Amino acid sequence: MDRFFVKEENIDIENKKMFIEGEDVKHISKVLRYSIGDKLEICDGKNKEYICSIADISKNIIELQIEEKVGINRESNIQVVIYQGLPKSQKMEYILQKLTESGVYEIVLVDTKRSIVNLDDKKMDKKFERWERIVYEAAKQCKRGIVPKIRGILTFDQAIEDMKNNDFNISPYEEEKSMGIKKILKSDECRQSMNKEKAKIGIFIGPEGGFECQENEKIKKSGAKSVAMGPRIFRTETACVIATAITLYELGDIGGN
Questions:
Q1: What string of H, E and C letters represents the secondary structure of 79-92?
Q2: Where is the Ribosomal RNA small subunit methyltransferase E methyltransferase domain (predicted)?
Q3: Which are the contacts of 205, defined by CB distance < 8 A and separation ≥ 6?
Q4: CATH homologous superfamily for the domain 78-251
């Protein structure tokens, strides 16, 4: 069953109705060719979901009848915030899609010393629109309970300051020798920081070429833990996904009970 997100204000629980607007209307009616009576999975973007049947289809709105509420929690109690050093634009789309599938809560884009992206304001607005659509489509495909947020673009120092809002922070670094990611995630310090109903862990990922040595030192001075991810060097688009998967396996819901 295909899944779509509906704004909370378009859900009328009392009358068991909801409304789909925007680009999804055309996709449902013209591309997927759904018709009246067909059923859809609908999520409000806040981890509440419903099975609905199509009651009416017009050019700009699809009216749905709520059939039942689904009691499935699809989100981890560990909220992973990825601070992604800006890669080349063609890699960003892959990163956003795979991070959404992996289960991240938020993606923060960061301009680091080795970032080589042209930050043209006019073009960035269009890029953000496309990136947000990619995250939205990935969230539908993998049946997320929320649509991860994209924030930025932050400077390196702004990112360091922003990480103070998290309960714990790690930063994979290829030159790190003393501490592995699994060891730090299993440590008492990390487990105690994550021992709450909704805990946030930040993961700072470098761009192509990684962090400069001075940047890594700043990250460590901020209180984040510099960690190794093994003997091999990962590309930035691989490192962010692997770090997320390891973190949610050790602390969250990847791997099941």
A1: EEEEEEECCCHHHH
A2: 75-246
A3: 82, 83, 84, 85, 171, 172, 236, 239, 240, 243
A4: SPOUT methyltransferase, trefoil knot domain (3.40.1280.10)
User: What is the rounded distance in angstroms from the CA atom of residue 86 to the CA atom of residue 79?
Assistant: 21
* Model pTM score: 0.90
Structure-token pair, residue 249: 């396996």
For 216, what's the count of Cα atoms within 13 Å in the CB-facing half-sphere? 17
> What class has domain 3-70?
mainly beta
In the chain, CATH 3.40.1280.10 sits at 78-251
- What are the pLDDT digits (tens) for 194-253? 998 899 999 999 988 888 888 989 999 999 999 999 889 899 999 999 999 999 999 988
| Mean pLDDT, each 10-residue run in order, the chain (257 residues) | 92 94 92 94 92 94 94 90 88 95 96 76 81 95 95 93 96 88 95 93 92 89 92 93 96 77
User: How buried is residue 159: exposed, middle or buried, by Cβ count under 10 Å (0-12/13-18/19+)?
Assistant: buried
CB atoms within 10 A of CB 187: 14
Q: For the chain, where do the domains classified as CATH 2.40.240.20 start and end?
A: 3-70
Non-local (6+) Cβ contacts of 19 within 8 A are 6, 10, 61, 62, 63, 64
| Cβ atoms within 10 Å of 2's Cβ, excluding its own | 16
CA distance 158 to 161: 5
β-pair partners for 78: 199
Let me know: does 18 contact 66? Beta carbons within 8 Å.
Answer: yes
Closest CA to 195 of 235, 168, 214, 230: 168
